[in-house]
From TrEMBL:
Official protein name in the record: Oligopeptidase B
Sample GO molecular function, one term: serine-type endopeptidase activity
Family: Belongs to the peptidase S9A family.
Keywords: Hydrolase, Protease, Serine protease
Source organism per UniProt: Rhizobium metallidurans
Keyword flag Protease: yes
Matching Pfam families: Peptidase_S9, Peptidase_S9_N
InterPro entries in alphabetical order: AB_hydrolase_fold, Pept_S9_AS, Pept_S9A_N, Peptidase_S9_cat, Peptidase_S9A, Serine_Peptidase_S9A
Region Disordered: start-end pairs: 1-24
Domain Peptidase S9A N-terminal, chain residue ranges per copy: 11-424
Length: 702
């Protein structure tokens, strides 16, 4: 029997057919009208949204509220539980940099972080030593949405660049703050990517500007005290298929311009000794060749897949001539061991690598070549490498957690190999590790591969198929979903759920080949792996098909749309957050912010008939059919530049028109936010509580 009863009639989006012909194939889209013609301007001013579209979105929200009305007490309970696990007045351990140490803290009831510094050797527990540099709650006053991009101090510690987005559209405004007085200077830089890179003298900085299609296409040099209109154009990227960022080095010797898509990269260097110099190329872009670099004194250490190093290697090159002809291998490629990132300090080279799905930190003495590893023994865990803010340091910082173990922050001396536990994540409402079990199991894939699945459940959960399960997946861009501590999911686990993460192809969980096996023409492996995980959990009686609620967001929302089409009978419900479901139409629209840069990930259906056919074969919106779908909850943000609001809106309209099973299809559009949802920490918890309430309701556990 359906858990959704006495619902009002759902909104019915009018059909206004529009046809499009590509490669001799004509497709008709009944709901294309939901894409606002003025979407670029609307992202900056949501009030100008077409009234008919707004009316439809509001009707969808009203229907969603009616369907979820009976969960409101549960949502409040879930929210209270999640909030109770957060130390509201939490503070970071400040990182030493020059005469100060920099960190963040929250106040009880506060939604936004506050950035502070203390004298370098001050007692971090002495709050009277803190100087608040930026109060996020104060800056957010009166705004429905507000997200900080942080604050970056100048080399002389006198000024800071800080950025904010108050629409959810990810167009950030930069301001410059006098860190001695706390006052902002008149400088105002609009339409940026959210940060800047200081010149060493603290009198100017570099930043990337976004064009009207939200692409970071230009790098500018801004001199403090001058208007943005006078900023000098340093570099312009003509290829719309590439992202671009700008940053600095620990030694302040260079400004880095990083140009990349999902499989090709290029770096340009500006020596800080001559800020007007023409950017110098490191190695010209070659399709399929990636590299990132970090400064190591007189050499650059470069992480690259060049030379068929699929899982990456590290080379070094002289700073004064870093071209590829001078690259010399220092950490060789080891198939199956993926090097994720690297850092260099005065006496040590270190890198984070992953083998068999588990991470470890490797450290090499630059003088002797001696290496050692930092690793842990749990079946599944997560490591985060923060490094140090100073180049001349023997001490780095890293974090460790698992699905059962709260996050632990360590300082690590690379010479003595001593770990100093700085902080253990507090769970104010209590957390007993011994009440829970975390496991790493392997589901047989359709083609013989083993798909890792991380599980978390209470020790007293009955594993006889009766337990509900939230099965989470992503599977794109090489992103690995870590097996880290998550206080929110305990609200499900404590209600008898098995919480599962499927580490499917499209991520790099099992090396770079794992990623390649889930992109382009092999994209359907991602979807089949997720279904294989559901099959295994059902067969092994961790849960059953009738109890599995699938969840994924963004590209993971595409996954949700695909598995809903491919195997709707294997899922009791589906939660699709900001779901990328209209893949073919989006990849055919080269005016959208992410379309050209994403062609290497999905394919270019404009130029290639073959890639058109590949995408058309799985694109969730294009493959909705007359069949019984499970209850589906889609979540969207009006000003989302990554997955535009009309994608889930069109998908829901089509599902509702086609589905034969009578299960509700719900759409919740946040009219004040974008891709990341609500910006405040407790506002975000309200959204998670809503999603989990849907899962609990669908599972019949209210």
């Amino acid at each position: 029997m359906s858990v959704f009863k006495d619902l009002p009639n759902p909104p019915v989006a009018p059909k206004k057919p529009r046809s499009d012909t590509r490669h001799g194939i004509t497709r008709t889209d009944d709901y294309a009208w939901l894409r606002a013609d003025n979407w670029q301007a609307m992202f900056k001013d949501p009030s100008i949204l077409d009234p008919e579209i707004r009316k439809h979105l509001e009707a969808e929200n009203a229907y969603m509220n009616a369907a979820m009305e009976d969960t409101k007490p549960l949502q409040k309970t879930l929210f209270a539980e999640m909030r109770g696990r957060i130390k509201e007045d939490d503070s970071s351990i400040p990182m030493k940099d020059g005469p100060f140490a920099y960190g963040t803290f929250f106040v009880t009831g506060g939604e936004q972080p506050r950035y502070f510094r203390i004298p370098r050797d001050a007692d971090i527990k002495d709050e009277s030593q803190r100087t608040v540099l930026l109060d996020g709650d104060k800056e957010a006053e009166g705004k429905a949405y507000f997200r900080l991009a942080g604050i970056d101090h100048s080399t002389d510690h006198d000024r800071g660049i800080w950025g904010y987005d108050d629409k959810g559209s990810e167009f950030y405004t930069l301001k410059v703050r006098d860190l001695k007085t706390g006052e902002d200077l008149p400088d105002l830089i609009e339409n940026t990517g959210g940060g800047g890179a200081w010149a060493p003298d603290g009198k100017s900085f570099f930043y990337s500007a976004l064009d009207e299609n939200h692409r970071p296409s230009k790098v500018f040099h801004h001199i403090i005290g001058t208007p943005q209109s006078e900023d000098r154009l340093v570099y312009e990227e003509e290829d719309a298929g590439f992202f671009m960022g700008v940053g600095g080095s620990l030694l302040d010797d260079f400004i880095f311009i990083d140009i990349h898509d999902h499989e090709t990269s290029e770096y340009l260097l500006i020596p800080t000794g001559d800020l007007t110099a023409k950017p110098k190329l490191v190695a010209a872009r070659e399709e399929g060749i990636e590299y990132t670099l970090t400064e190591g004194g007189d050499v650059f250490y470069i992480l690259t897949n060049d030379g068929e190093a699929k899982d990456f290697k590290i080379v070094e090159a002289p700073v004064d001539n870093p071209g590829k002809e001078n690259w010399r291998e220092v950490v060789p490629h080891k198939p199956g061991t993926l090097i994720i990132s690297h850092m260099a300090y005065a006496r040590h080279l270190l890198w984070l690598e992953r083998k068999d799905g588990l991470p470890q930190i490797m450290i090499r003495d630059r003088a002797t070549g001696e290496e050692h590893a930092i690793g842990f023994a749990e079946e599944a865990y997560s490591l985060g490498l923060q490094g140090a803010a100073e180049y001349d340091s023997d001490v780095i910082r890293f974090s460790y957690s698992s699905m059962t173990t709260p996050s632990q922050l360590y300082d690590y001396n690379m010479v003595t190999r001593e770990r100093t536990l700085l902080k253990t994540q507090e769970v104010p409402s209590g957390h007993n590790i011994d009440d829970y079990v975390t496991r790493r199991v392997f589901a047989p894939g359709w083609d013989g591969v083993e798909v890792p699945v991380t599980l978390l459940y209470r020790k007293d959960t009955r594993l006889d198929g009766s337990a509900p399960c939230l099965l989470y997946g992503y599977g794109a861009y090489g992103v690995t979903i870590p097996a880290s501590f998550n206080t929110n999911c305990l609200s499900l686990v404590d209600r008898g759920f098995v919480y599962a993460i499927a580490h499917i192809r499209g991520g790099k969980d099992r090396g770079f080949a794992w990623y390649e096996d889930g992109k382009m023409e092999k994209k359907t492996n991602t979807f089949k792996d997720f279904i294989a995980a559901a099959d295994y959990l059902n067969q092994q009686k961790f849960t059953s098909y009738a109890n599995i609620i699938a969840e994924g967001g963004s590209a993971g929302g595409m996954l949700m749309g695909a598995i809903s089409n491919m195997a709707p009978e294997k899922f009791a419900g589906v939660i699709a957050a900001v779901p990328f479901v209209d893949v073919l139409n989006t990849m055919l629209d080269d005016t959208l912010p992410l379309t050209p840069p994403e062609w290497p990930e999905w394919g270019n259906p404009i130029d290639s008939r073959e890639e058109y056919d590949q995408i058309a074969a799985y694109s969730p919106y294009d493959n909705v059919e007359a069949k019984p779908y499970p209850p589906i909850l889609a979540l969207s943000g009006l000003t989302d530049p990554r997955v535009t609001y009309w994608e889930p809106t069109k998908w829901v309209a089509k599902l509702r028109d086609k589905s034969t099973g009578g299960a509700p299809v719900l759409l919740k559009t946040n009219m004040d936010a974008g891709h990341g949802g609500a910006s405040g920490r407790f506002q975000r918890l309200e959204e998670v509580a809503f999603e989990y309430a849907f899962a609990v309701k669908v599972a019949g556990k209210m």
